[in-house]
Amino acid sequence: MNTDSSSVAFSVLDLAPILAGGTPTDTFRNSLHLAQQVEAMGYTRYWLSEHHNMASVASSAPPILIGHIAGGTTSLRVGSGGIMLPNHAPLVVAEQMGTLASLYPGRIDLGLGRAPGTDQRTAQAIRGSRFGAVQDFPSDIQQLQTYFSTANSSSPVRAMPGEGLDIPIYILGSSTDSAYLAAALGIPYAFASHFAPAQLLPALQIYRQHFQPSATLAAPYAIACVNVVAADTDAQAQWLSTSLQRFMLSVVAGHPAPLQPPVKDMTPFWAPAQQHMVEQMLSYSFIGSKATLQAELQEFVDRTQVNELMAITNVFEHEARVYSYQLLADALRAVTRQPLDAVVS
Which residues form the Luciferase-like domain (predicted)? Predict the structure, then answer.
């Protein structure tokens, strides 16, 4: 974990988008290639999300994808952004992540969320009798911590592999509830401002004000997930970003669709109310040239004082996606932050 108070770590969140005309096989090939490229660019970590019953994303099994990415890279941290813990028994998560951490020591992160990552009908199919398990989210996290601890070695139920391994746990959230929990447990906190921007600043303030140091984390560590589309010019980046807008429009409409090619004009695709909703959801989107990104991200870091930026880049052409991450890395090398004691609300 980055501990330099002046530098901002930068990482990748991959939804494993399925492209129009493409297949999950294409998605997984692109994800591995992207991970290899961003590893060389100096990115810190590469996280994969958990979503179900969506024709637009292929990330329904994060542990398998984590193994795929970790096996094709050498130093990049790879993890879940996140595993939706109420969908799974804590012991199974501990065993799966313990297996990955045994295969790729010192490189596996465990980001945990409480949402289902899908619609309610699919959540019922996944959780079955555990449908109310969302209420157990705090205790399930503590159970995971127990399974990973050496103190659990005398328990009749043990995570093998998993026990005694250093697998950092992160709490993911899109509301202030998760901020209180991450603070109480002394766990790093990642906020989903790429689609839920409204609560970012209040959540960060709560997390820092209520943070309780733990055995694994002495001071708050906050990650902000943001949308980024970078290109050589602002105009080109804006054009590329229409694929992201069309993707979010399909989510808003309740019918998530594969990622579409960019278009010159979004006017035929959305009504004014839909446009407003999409633009609100994408408030924390950084779109433009390297110079534009550097200026806007510096302002964002000055305002939020986050330790790390995790970028999600949904553009249609794979080469443009890789290039966007290169421009972002170049821009972020000049972005700095103040010490946490200088934070103002």
Answer: 12-252
CA angle, residues 292, 241, 325, in degrees to nearest 5: 60
Does some domain include residue 2? Answer: no
The model's confidence at residue 3, banded by pLDDT at 50, 70 and 90, is very low
| Cβ-Cβ contacts under 8 Å for 288 (sequence gap 6 or more) | 229, 230, 231, 234, 237, 238, 296
Residue 198 inside a domain? The answer is yes
| Residue 216 structure tokens | 């694994």
pLDDT, tens digit, for every residue of 65-117? 999 999 999 999 999 999 999 999 999 999 999 999 999 999 999 999 998 77
| Residues 133/112, Cβ–Cβ less than 8 Å | no
Side chain identity, residue 109: D
> CB–CB of 276/191 below 8 Å?
no
Domain that holds residue 198: 9-342
pLDDT digits (tens, 9 = 90+) for 176-213: 999 999 999 999 999 999 999 999 999 999 999 999 99
| β-pair partners for 314 | none
Q: Is residue 85 part of a domain?
A: yes
Give the tokens for residue 90.
Answer: 């804590």
Beta strand spans in the chain (E):
9-14, 45-48, 77-84, 108-113, 169-173, 189-191, 222-230, 285-288, 308-312
Q: What CATH number corresponds to the domain at position 238?
A: 3.20.20.30
Which residues neighbour 23 within 8 Å (Cβ) at sequence distance 6 or greater?
none
In the chain, how many domains are there? 1
* Closest to 16 in 3D by CA, of 70, 42, 55: 55
